[in-house]
Amino acid sequence: MKKTRTTPSDLSATIAKNIRDAIVSGALIVDERLPSEADLSEQFNVSRPTVREALKRLAAQSLIRTQRGATGGAFVNHISFQDAYPQQITTSTLLLSMNDVSFETACEARFALERACAPLSAQRRSADHLATMRTEIFRQSQPGLSDEAWCASDVSFHRALVDGAANPVLSYQLAGAIEAIEPLMNMITFTARSRAEIIALHTEIADGLEDQAPDKVDGALIALETYTRQLAKDVFSRQKSAKTTT
Amino acid sequence: MKKTRTTPSDLSATIAKNIRDAIVSGALIVDERLPSEADLSEQFNVSRPTVREALKRLAAQSLIRTQRGATGGAFVNHISFQDAYPQQITTSTLLLSMNDVSFETACEARFALERACAPLSAQRRSADHLATMRTEIFRQSQPGLSDEAWCASDVSFHRALVDGAANPVLSYQLAGAIEAIEPLMNMITFTARSRAEIIALHTEIADGLEDQAPDKVDGALIALETYTRQLAKDVFSRQKSAKTTT
DNA sequence: AAAGAACAATTGTAAGACAAATGAAAAAAA
DNA sequence: TTTTTTTCATTTGTCTTACAATTGTTCTTT
Fold first, then answer.
1. Which ipTM did the prediction report?
2. 20 to 30 Å CA-CA from A145: which of A194, A208, B42, B149?
3. Please, what are the domains in chain A?
4. How many interface pairs between A and B have CB atoms less than 8 angstroms apart?
């Protein structure tokens, strides 16, 4: 071994970490302008392309934004919950698809989190949230609704429930769980019969929230979870038997 | 306007999105090798530095890893929950610090999520989880414990609770919530008196889990939330009065 | 004084070069 | 023949230089 090699021979990663730490620790505050790429390359003793690679890493995490022109540069980004949603969803989706998470596990997590929101939502939900849920229930009852549209409506319904809790931290956390699991849900809610059952439970949930009756909502969510898991079990066993007969 | 300008004049972002979509959609599978940077720059008709900026964006999201050498290149990464934790925590931390999330809101979310895990944990917690919790409680009872060590121990305790639910999706979601809120918690748990109270509640939680008594755990968590919020209120009002007298 | 033109600063992109790593193939030695 | 060494080709990591595009500022002209 020639050198101690504390650096992982990846300057752009090192520089990115350096700047990221400065942002997280508060040394760089929101909307503050970073030194220009030329200045940074001098400070860190690297070339401009290397600095740029580091900045792109940070941009990928929405930590900075860049602007061209005379007064341009890289600025510390204000990360809103809105901005963080897509990243959260992308990561959650990949985590589920790459780690052999069973439907059971994903479903359990999703409903556990959603049930955590329900009491708060029953307490605070606005007329808007209730209206959204009623609208989505109506949409779901339309016979011609495509599977994709059904799923989108289902997501909207449950997001309204979660948003009703009026806690952005919860909404953010739940967004990943609900949206990432939706593709898995797609497979099991395509028959008219299951739709009718789910609509009935959705109605019970909306009623419970309107009446500010957390127990009623909780019961409906438990029923919905049970029903969903039963449907999934049926679908999977049917797939298996179809495979053996072929 | 000269052009339609669908491209935001940010080639590396466009290329990154292109490849990211291929990964998320499953067109590129785990451990598959991407074309070399030279090939990619030909395919996308851009220079190699631009391709590299795109790849660094993906690397920042842990979507790919790169390797030098003859058989090297960029490979689609297998994202484990373990890998995703730090990103989740970084993002959550910044979201809290940048969005004026009140302590009340953060605290409410954290305990709502944790209480969602508690029944599952009471059902499935292993001896290991219980042992970890007992160990941390013991550590917390040591008089000389620094504030930092106390907080770290507190995090370990609650993570053991959450991990006891044996649901990686829940553990992942909670990691962000618990760890990101910890800095806020730091401010309020520094007196011996509050430590003693918290240790008592921790013990109640551990007992409840050991006895597989979810209601007992839930009660203790509610008490802990109430106590924490009361402490926070006291600290803030004291800060305010200190400010006015100065 | 107002409008327009030139200017300067900064990021975005390109091209070419060399260094470093690394596996594979070829050559040499046992 | 088998093992070790050497060479080599491929690929990423980094640097240098250059130019294009954008945009606020300053100067000039009307």
1. 0.84
2. A208
3. 11-76 (1.10.10.10), 81-233 (1.20.120.530)
4. 148
